[in-house]
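Section 5: illustrative case.
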């Protein structure tokens, strides 16, 4: 990763840390837990490492599996921990720096490491919000990666439509989707967070994970999916009907598209995120369906599927240029089913730019 790009990130996050008494930040990646921050602030994509950085000093600790990779990916001093414990090296480096107040990401730091650091006498301060704020604004290089992930996911979805048939299992749909994404050059799907494939009455589950249920003719499935490309993700939801769609299903889908488009029309810098949510919710309320819209309108995406800002009725966020957000109004009726229509947007000075433009916003129909 470009050294100047990473140093710029350190400079931006440092403006909210160093003046407030933070001497250094320690970020852990424990076999993949916390990799996002470590990658963003070091360029390193291995599954194990520790980054220590202050106003001027930067060190990356890893083990023998990743020494060469770390030196290729990160511009910082790489330290081979060999047979030493991470915590021993971390303590030694922090003592050398004279650091006493240490910033950590309390949302990803395992409790056993927190306790070890605390016993060493360091004052630990949670700086997860500052890290998230820094990661929120997407530069053009990041936007291009998200667009590529959206393109791969969209093509994969369109490719598997020919494989959908009456009796196909939800798990098979999810597996075929990820396989197609990998063939198109993606790293895969979202990793620990699996796709949503919910058919028939199960589509009333907003987060209905795929099961062995066989999807039948006369039913639709809600499919929530996305690709990961060079660390960055896309997030898309489409609905697919096997056979001739019912009038009610078509009406619900059309209404969701109207709510989606209305919300997108409100997106621009300086707009309260809750007002965008309200715009979509009002369209559904006009038809008495807002009570079936049981989640927030959207969220930020980037290295994680859920990032800042949050588009919800309780959000205090205000949209900024460089935000990348989802818009995903949904309706979920127990005993009947549910639908959601989701796309990804970049907030620009002119409004919203759709990053998932390679896939139509329609109710897909498969005739068998």
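Designed sequence:
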């Amino acid at each position: 990763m470009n050294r100047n790009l990473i140093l710029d990130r350190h400079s931006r996050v440092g403006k909210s840390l160093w003046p407030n008494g933070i001497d250094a930040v320690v970020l852990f990646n424990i076999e993949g837990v916390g990799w996002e921050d470590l990658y963003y602030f070091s360029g390193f994509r291995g599954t194990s490492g520790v980054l220590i950085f202050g106003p001027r000093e930067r060190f990356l600790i890893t083990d023998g599996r990743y020494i060469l990779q770390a030196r290729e990916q990160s511009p910082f001093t790489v330290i081979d921990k060999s047979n030493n414990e991470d915590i021993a090296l971390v303590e030694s480096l922090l003592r050398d720096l004279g650091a006493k107040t240490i910033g950590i990401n309390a949302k990803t730091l395992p409790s056993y490491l927190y306790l070890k650091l605390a016993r060493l006498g360091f004052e630990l301060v949670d700086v997860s919000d500052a890290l998230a704020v820094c990661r929120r604004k997407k530069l053009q290089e990041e936007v291009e990666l998200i667009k590529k992930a959206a393109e791969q996911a969209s093509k994969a979805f369109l490719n598997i439509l020919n494989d959908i048939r009456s009796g196909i299992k939800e798990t098979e749909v999810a597996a075929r989707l990820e396989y197609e994404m990998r063939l198109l050059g993606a790293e895969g799907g979202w990793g620990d967070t699996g796709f949503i494939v919910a058919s028939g009455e199960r589509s009333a589950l907003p987060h209905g994970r795929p099961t062995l249920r066989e999807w039948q003719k006369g039913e639709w499935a809600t499919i929530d999916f996305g690709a990961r490309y060079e660390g960055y993700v896309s997030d898309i939801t489409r609905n697919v009907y096997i056979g001739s769609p019912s009038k009610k299903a078509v009406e619900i889908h059309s209404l969701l598209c109207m709510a989606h488009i209305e919300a997108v029309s409100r997106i621009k810098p300086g707009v309260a995120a809750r007002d965008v949510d309200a715009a979509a919710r009002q369209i559904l309320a006009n038809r008495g369906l807002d009570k079936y819209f049981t989640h927030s309108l959207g969220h930020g995406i980037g290295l994680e599927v859920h990032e800042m800002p949050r588009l919800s009725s309780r959000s205090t966020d205000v949209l900024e240029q460089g935000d990348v957000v989802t818009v995903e109004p949904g309706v979920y009726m127990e005993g009947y089913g549910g639908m959601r229509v989701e796309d990804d947007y970049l907030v620009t000075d002119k409004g919203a730019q759709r990053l998932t433009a390679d896939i139509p916003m329609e109710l897909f129909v498969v005739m068998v």
